[in-house]
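Final report, results section. Input specification for complex C-07:
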Amino acid sequence: MIKKVLIANRGEIAIRIMRTCREMGILSVAVYSDADRKSMHVRYADEAYHIGPSPSNESYLVIENIIDAAKKSGADAIHPGYGFLSENAEFSDRCKEEGIKFIGPSSESISKMGDKITARRTMMAANVPVVPGTTDPLTSEEDALKVIKKVGLPVMLKASSGGGGKGMRLVTKEEDILPSLRAAKSESMASFGDDAVYVEKFISSPHHIEFQVLADSHGNVIHLFERECSVQRRHQKVIEETPSPLMTPKVRNEMGEVAVAATKAANYQGAGTIEFIMDDNLNYYFLEMNTRLQVEHPITERVVGIDLVKEQIRIADGQKLKYKQEDLSQNGHAIECRIYAEDPDNNFMPSPGTILHITEPLGLGVRHDGYVYEGYEIPIYYDPLISKLIVWGIDRDEAIQRMKRALFAYKIMGVKTGIKFLEKIMNTPDFVEGKYNTQFIEKNKDILMEENKCDGDCKAIATIAAFIDYQNRLKKVKDRIHPDDVNNNWKAFGRKRNITRL
Amino acid sequence: MIKKVLIANRGEIAIRIMRTCREMGILSVAVYSDADRKSMHVRYADEAYHIGPSPSNESYLVIENIIDAAKKSGADAIHPGYGFLSENAEFSDRCKEEGIKFIGPSSESISKMGDKITARRTMMAANVPVVPGTTDPLTSEEDALKVIKKVGLPVMLKASSGGGGKGMRLVTKEEDILPSLRAAKSESMASFGDDAVYVEKFISSPHHIEFQVLADSHGNVIHLFERECSVQRRHQKVIEETPSPLMTPKVRNEMGEVAVAATKAANYQGAGTIEFIMDDNLNYYFLEMNTRLQVEHPITERVVGIDLVKEQIRIADGQKLKYKQEDLSQNGHAIECRIYAEDPDNNFMPSPGTILHITEPLGLGVRHDGYVYEGYEIPIYYDPLISKLIVWGIDRDEAIQRMKRALFAYKIMGVKTGIKFLEKIMNTPDFVEGKYNTQFIEKNKDILMEENKCDGDCKAIATIAAFIDYQNRLKKVKDRIHPDDVNNNWKAFGRKRNITRL
Amino acid sequence: MSLEINIDGSSSVVKLITQDGNNYKISVNDEDYDVDLVEVEKGVYSILYNNKSYNVELTPGNKPKTYTINTLYNSYDIGILDAEAKYMKNRKSDDLDDDSTISSPMPGKVVRVLVKKGDSVKAGETVIIISAMKMESEYKIKKDRKIIEVLVNDGDTIDGNQPLIIIE
Amino acid sequence: MSLEINIDGSSSVVKLITQDGNNYKISVNDEDYDVDLVEVEKGVYSILYNNKSYNVELTPGNKPKTYTINTLYNSYDIGILDAEAKYMKNRKSDDLDDDSTISSPMPGKVVRVLVKKGDSVKAGETVIIISAMKMESEYKIKKDRKIIEVLVNDGDTIDGNQPLIIIE
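Structure output:
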């Protein structure tokens, strides 16, 4: 059995993993960069090893340093968390070479699912529905017209080597096909030195729905139902919930089976996520597979009742899955909000800084996975995620009410956060009614960016608080001066003394 | 519908109730004594009213003041929490007279269940098993011998007017019956001016098991299964769990039905608890009914999935129960630990004081219901309960592991607490195996009071921390003195400066 | 005691009339407020006004004598306008002005530069998108401006506070 | 720098040998410890020793220059023995002595008085049970003593620090 796990990560996810290790009687080993000496994961761990300077490409991303720490500590397994090296095939391989268990899939599975074209082909071979289109480049303008007619408008033209939206064109009208194709090809050539372009059906305003899967090393695969992740800003998930308000039992079963088939096709082992996009008619298409634990895994843990990290460790240890598909069901409703150090009034710019004060929301149905503490300085080098707030309710209405209550009580001073923005989402009719897709934030931006109303007195109350606080501070400064010193310090404090005479 | 609730309580339970109010869109009104101006329930509430000096008999127990605050605030209901006025029949009546909904039972139910003899008779009439014995005083020594023969030894002789253990005698041998009877009678006469004594079967080392019930004003009654509360110190519950490790499905169903019958016999409305004692052969006897919300209600909420305060408010509002008995089931396992400001090394003496620092345990499966914050001074006037730590696990093993993890991470500086004592209970074989009764703490006191072992370095580490901290403080004092001031302040700081030269 | 206090751009005259323990009578622009006010945690005040409970958090602002204050739902920027602050304010140039150099406070990567040297850019337009701390941020211009120099390219790795674009 | 430090009754000589940032070499009774030590919160230190992570909390004790220190599982009472403290210690009478008056720090109620005037009581015996803050506490005697006076009866309501029993 695994006895000591090195967690090759930081922040809330490192702590979350260490908590499970502690429950399993497994020792946890932290690694940290210069910027993270005071970070909670170092304090929470049983052991801690320094792995380099603050930038992650000199510390958390350096395979050599992680392996070195694992050997020094005698860890028999490494958990990569999410981000950093979690989907790095070389790292998975390297662990295997060193005789250290990698708590995640094989390098083959990571590579296969990491390359979008290979993943698409693997899924098609396993009869998993993918977005209609081609995976091979268009050979000619005639070929393009023929293929696009077959796929049906609207389509997206995508550069084979593409990324970041370059060499991409949305085509909605027939007469635009050829001009768009030429533009896409020339942009692709300019950007990537390659003009290969392929076609995908354009799903407008899709829903983003993903299925959690678990696969052991004995060929057993189960799914733990869906997560609805359509509330996104700049393709980043903001809020997730389960069950999806869109889902029907029939489609859920079907997609679950597809997810299991996809997992098997990837020859997968561990916890993974099959991401789908879905249109308003509940047609769904494989988007990609995340070969790691997701940020939003706690909502699944809450409604299914299974500790996913515990299962990951058991699987890495070679054990058989503890649960069969028929044992599992969804109980109630869970929602997760991601709390970032960001400034919603300034285009969600990251807002690192020192936490002056924090009041965490607690009580019935609330789970709070964080890592910051009072006096902690959020470093500028990493993801500004402060914590994840997860609530459970007996139904979706109760979960929303509870999330509002928790967000209301959650107070952080010192850095700006998206808490008030998230509260507004909870009050937005489209969200409350469960009628939303990935366009939700764009569609509701007027509601979401609206200023909070004040009942009239809060401005005066704020003014009064500032008034008293300022007077108290002045008084403290005065009191700190010994009576005999006043004359000596007249110059320095004279101005402040003047103020109190106004 | 109820729109504004006054919470006639303080501490964690006041906040717990306000949280639910907020989820229901109900405004909450706090009341506070002099000692509680800075208390979290005042800060958390929408409104707050001062109700008198610090001692509770001049504030939280003064019906007049509470009613006055309710009228001023326009509250349409009052939630009494637990303790204070929660089982005060006069208060329930007074609310009714004033047209304010009392979130609890009628004065009749409170009185009936509050008087132990009446409660016993009511239950016997409803065929609820009570501890065998008499409810009428023994008329003569012959009567005593006859009755005790029928009940069977061992028995407990109890003074009818008794309390606090006075006029009570345990009889295990036949020859002791008459001497014990005479001693009990004379002690009772001396203490209460009344020598009436009655007989109850003595249940040695019983289990304390209680059933949660909900009854609406339309005659519907359901139970929400049991809570095992046998871990007690001086008749005070320390740890509660559900399901009970002792229980069988058959006995659970039977006792649930009995609990419902008992509730109906009490003509009860609201949330209540039927307490039973149970012997090792699963024979169970009605002990008493608590006509209020229990401290330990969260473990039931967690495994059954129902917010009990929400149901209390709905019932007080005249609504029908939302759930039928057949809708309910127990999902997983929950344990609660009560964290008191107390000193386990000094006979659990209350340890009020100022919270210097607190790290609350969070994460998967952990609920933490508290009210203190850094800088808050726990007043000397009230119950020293700081918080309740509730964990859930998919089974009892996981729940115990999780509780250990949570207790390990729970740190409070400034007051002493029972956290380490609770951790030891989680490691005690009798508890781990679920084989315990109300004698648990007494039986295991050697394990529980044992000193924690240290691996050898922790003493040196503590010494080093003290060394550095002391040096840093000295340095700060020095730095605070302006160079020009040193001579003037030589007297005051000379001694400290000397130290640093050692 | 009296002070001029600026809240979200408009200023109020605040006077302490009486104090008795926690209980203050304070006038704000000649309107009287009887409040029960107590500092419960560092920078956190519990204020009862007409029995309404306010939990008010004060965070020191970036400039001296300024605060960011959170009440129940609202956040305000507040400045204390004493004689010194007024003097400084009169000397200071327009607050809404851009800095002449655009830079990111954090290290990161240039996602896309949307302008080139010599471009005329309108107020509110985005000139550069930076990815830092795993999030993309758009940097906008506050007034109509001309681009003097672009110092980075798409995909460049940048340090914190490294000049990226020089504007007029 | 060197100090004598008393931990749970036994004393150690602690010396700072070298310091480089967070990294200290410190000797405790001539045994050297290389620790990485940093104060992360007020009174809370994160200490790495041989890569083991210790979260150490320091609470000021009731007397000056004393601490209560919590490591992972253990709690220690620690005193700094500088020249002044040693001087005071020599002058001080036996620490294990009882106060001559038994009182409760909190207001409460007398549950039961277990002794009466003139009784001889053995070390460790309980003399009175007080109910305060809703909990019952037993007050014990540290040394064999005689009861001079009992000032309260069962059931009495008492104030904080009110004398309850006078002992020899």
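Residues 458-480 of chain B form the longest helix (23 residues). Confidence is low (pLDDT under 50) at residues 482-502 of chain B. This concludes the modelling results for the funded period.
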